[in-house]
Amino acid sequence: TNYRFRSAVLKSFLIRGDAEEAQHILKNLLQSYPQESIGAAMNLLSSHDTSRALFYLDSGGNETQGVTAKNKENFDYERGKKLLKLALVFQMGFVGIPTIYYGDEAGLFGASTPDNRRTFPWGHEDHDLLTFYKDMIQWRKANQKILTQGEVKFLYAKKNVFVFKRSLNRSLILAFNRGSRVEKLQLPDGTSLELAPMSYQIR
Length: 203
Fold this sequence. Notes:
Layout: H1 3-15, H2 19-32, H3 35-39, E1 42-44, H4 53-58, H5 77-93, E2 97-99, H6 127-142, H7 144-149, E3 151-158, E4 161-168, E5 170-177, E6 183-186, E7 192-195, E8 199-202
Parallel strand pairs: 1-2
Antiparallel strand pairs: 3-4, 4-5, 5-8, 6-7
Helix pairs in contact: 1-2, 5-6
């Protein structure tokens, strides 16, 4: 179970806006294990031992046991959802096995144990989020070979912006802006990017 991936993407990058720290953690992760182990790592965003990603992302990384995210009252659900979508795209595009904790795809939220173990919200699913999850899973399946066998290269990591590339005969560039303003940048290969606030691009 790859909690270092979760820490890098959720806490360092999406919560703190420290892309450099996130890149350092992920580079260290890739250098610490054989390629076969990295490829089989369970990259998760939530689990039964953590706060749910949707709540965690807007609460500033709150893992306090007993803190209850009641009825969307003590956190911004929509902001958490926007950040969760960025996290999901990162998860689906990175090396390793994307692991989804039941209910995250339906908008289930909660603080640490036992609040993170609520029942599935049957009849109250967030259909926009559910559709987004389905679309990203289909995207991963359509690009399975490059995403399971391809090389990972970090292209840019500074504050609110993170960009990495997957390569295997062809390339995919995944770029993220978790900030509140438009970000313009030029990659080492000359590619120019303009990222809207709290958005991603796949090229």
